Amino acid sequence: MAAESLSDRILRENDAVLGAMLSHRFVEDVKNDRLSKEAFERYLVYEGAFVDSAISIFAYAAATAGTMPQKRWLIAVLDALANEQIAYFERTFASRGIDPSSFDTRIPEVEAFRVGMLDIARRGGFLDTVAAMFAAEWMYWTWCRQAANRPISDPLLKEWVDMHVDPNFAAQAQWLKNELDMAGETLEDDETVRLSAIFGRAMQLEIDFHDAPYL
Ligand SMILES: Cc1ncc(CO)c(N)n1
């Protein structure tokens, strides 16, 4: 029997916390087309702030990547974040008349996620950032595929869900998984334990972050 890949091991070891996130109230509300306008708009502002910091997180990954193919991939990720994702927030805030500065993005759940993810990237190495963003992106790809098959009345929420099932985003989630698997073939066991814990920490921060639109 082939040895379990590192990403599959991480997913298995974090099954409970990943499952808790995938059945979070926010995910259930989107899948059942019952997320309130107020919660969606708070989410959008918090999320826009996170996507901004994701540019910094992936910039750390680009700075610590070992090979040119990794650097090229991450530069494309940075381009998509700045020019597709951030553009989505700019358009959405404008069309809804949302003023992000009138929301408090410094509430603990939002700040803990942003600072926690940024700290992993800033203080850790390349694989630490990959493990944390694998948690974030694999989870979004998973629940958005489920939500994309159901009716979503709000066109901007529908567009946001669809962005996370787009082949480009799917390829990015798979790329992170594959980076872990390639590295995993030569990692010491204490390193794999540490990376699995980073995944778990990131997922718990995600859970708290998705509570925030309801507070
Ligand atoms: C909060 C959050 N987690 C994960 C993703 C996926 O990148 C996202 N866009 N936002």
Description of the molecule:
- The radius of gyration is 17 Å and the shape is globular.
- The chain contains 10 helices and no strands.
- It has a single domain (6-214), classed as Heme oxygenase-like (Heme Oxygenase, Chain A).
- The model has no long low-confidence stretch (mean pLDDT 97).
- The protein is mostly helical and 215 residues long.
- The N and C termini lie far apart (48 Å).
- Bound molecules: 4-amino-5-hydroxymethyl-2-methylpyrimidine (HMH).
- Residues 47, 50, 136-137, 140, 206, 209 line the site of 4-amino-5-hydroxymethyl-2-methylpyrimidine.
Task: Give descriptors for this structure.
Thiaminase-2/PQQC, binds 4-amino-5-hydroxymethyl-2-methylpyrimidine, 79% helix, Heme Oxygenase, Chain A, 0% strand, hydrolase, thiaminase activity, mainly alpha, Haem_Oase-like_multi-hlx, Aminopyrimidine aminohydrolase
Task: Break the fold down into its secondary structure elements and pairings.
Layout: H1 6-13, H2 15-22, H3 25-31, H4 37-64, H5 68-96, H6 108-123, H7 126-148, H8 155-163, H9 167-184, H10 189-211
The structure holds 4-amino-5-hydroxymethyl-2-methylpyrimidine.
Entry summary:
One of its GO terms (molecular function) is thiaminase activity. With 215 residues, the protein is mostly helical. It contains ten helices and no strands.
Shape: globular
- In CATH terms, what is the fold-level topology? Heme Oxygenase, Chain A
Rounded to the nearest angstrom, the distance between the terminal CA atoms is 48 Å
Low-pLDDT stretches are: none
Mean pLDDT, as a whole number? 97
Sheet-strand content, in percent, reads under 5%
**What is the succession of H and E elements?**
HHHHHHHHHH
Number of helices: 10
**Derived structural class:** mainly alpha
CATH class: Mainly Alpha
Radius of gyration: 17 Å
- The level of helicity is over 70%
Which cofactors or ions or other ligands sit in this model? 4-amino-5-hydroxymethyl-2-methylpyrimidine
Q: How many independent structural domains?
A: 1
Q: Could you describe the largest sheet, including whether it forms a barrel?
A: none
CATH architecture: Up-down Bundle
Total beta-strand segments: 0
CATH homology superfamily: Heme oxygenase-like
